[in-house]
Please model this.
Amino acid sequence: MASVGDLWIVDFGDPYLDEPARQRPALLLGPPESFGGALPFITVVPLTTTDRGLSIHVEIDATATTGLSATSFAQCELIRSVNRDRLVHRLGNIDPVANTRVKSIVKALLDH
Model:
C-alpha cells in the first residue's frame, strides 16, 4: 500500500521536452486512499540525481531507509498526478523533516 512520504519507482512514460520520463523515483504526496476507490490518481513529485542548485529542490540522501542508490533531489516544481498503475515498486520513505519541506515548497508554488 502506498502512503504519503513513500518513495516509489514510477513509470512516467515517454518524455516531452523537460518533463520527467521513463521509470524514476518519485515522492508520494497524496496516497491513493485519500482519493477513494473511484479516482485512480495519486499526486507525486519526481526525483532527479542532478543537483541544479535550486532552492525549490529538496535533497534526499541515499540510505537504507530511502532505498535510493544515489543522493536525489525532489523536483517540487514538477508535481503531477498519475494513475496509481504507474507505481512500479516501493523503494522506502523520506524523513518527516524533508517531507514537510517538500510540502511547504509545493504549497508556496501553488500559492496556498
About this structure: Strands lie at 6-11, 23-30, 41-48, 57-60, 72-75, 80-83, 87-93.
